[in-house]
Design goal:
Chain lengths: ~110, ~120
């Protein structure tokens, strides 16, 4: 059974800092991994999708890496802004397309 | 990116009544949709996989007779919470997979259900 852990659970940084969010998963037999952000009381916004054959994906200030064999993924956010404040969730996907969600990292970027 | 809508966004119902939540893929056809629930300050828990034209596949511990899922078309899946009780109060979120973009899933904005 896939278990997903995200560290840290919460993070508060001043605006402009670069930061790294960590995700680890127990079953490395994944097809892909998605990173999402969730604003309070809202649905999920997909940030990046990494296929199992890829090592990283970039979108703007976001860069996600995947080390499938060790069961780890990181989300790097460059030059953080107050608008980046949200909960960030990682979710590895298996053969059935099911996503198993991590516990999330609550990010607060202070202006 | 692909857009998924949910209706209603919020619903309050009395205990014992049934509530239907709709999930639509607006600009793509989704053969597979997923239903999740989320308790306050917790992560998303997958409830079931909804496949167009066939029965839904429920996760272990999810009552199929309580949470009825219908996926009658390639753009619409519905979740009906039958005989709702206060413990069913939660945030329900659907997602849809766009085959054109591989396995990326797009999520709806969620439905807040409160059972009084």
């Amino acid at each position: 059974k896939q278990e997903v852990t995200q560290i840290p659970a919460a993070l508060s940084v001043p605006e402009g800092e670069n930061l790294v969010l960590n995700c680890s998963f127990t079953d490395s037999a994944i097809y892909n991994l998605q990173w999402f952000r969730q604003d309070p009381g809202k649905g999920l916004t997909s940030l990046l999708l990494i296929q199992s054959s890829q090592r990283e994906q970039t979108s703007g200030r976001l860069n996600a890496s995947l080390d499938k064999s060790s069961g780890r993924s990181t989300l790097y956010i460059a030059a953080s802004q107050p608008g980046d404040s949200a909960t960030y969730l990682c979710a590895p996907g298996g053969a059935t397309n099911k996503l198993i969600f991590g516990t999330g990292t609550l990010l607060a970027v202070q202006p | 990116g692909a857009v998924v809508s949910q209706h209603p966004s919020r619903v309050i119902c009395k205990s014992g009544t049934s509530v239907k939540i709709e999930c639509r893929s607006l600009d793509f056809q989704a053969t597979t949709m997923f239903w999740y629930r989320q308790f306050p300050k917790q992560s998303l828990m997958l409830m079931a996989t909804s496949n167009e034209g066939s029965k839904a596949t429920y996760e272990q511990g999810v009552e199929k007779d309580k949470f009825l899922i219908n996926h009658a078309s390639l753009t619409l899946s519905t979740l009906t919470v039958t005989s709702a009780h206060p413990e069913d109060s939660s945030f329900y979120i659907c997602s849809a997979r766009d085959p054109a973009t591989g396995y990326e899933q797009y999520f709806g904005p969620g439905t807040r259900l409160t059972v009084t």
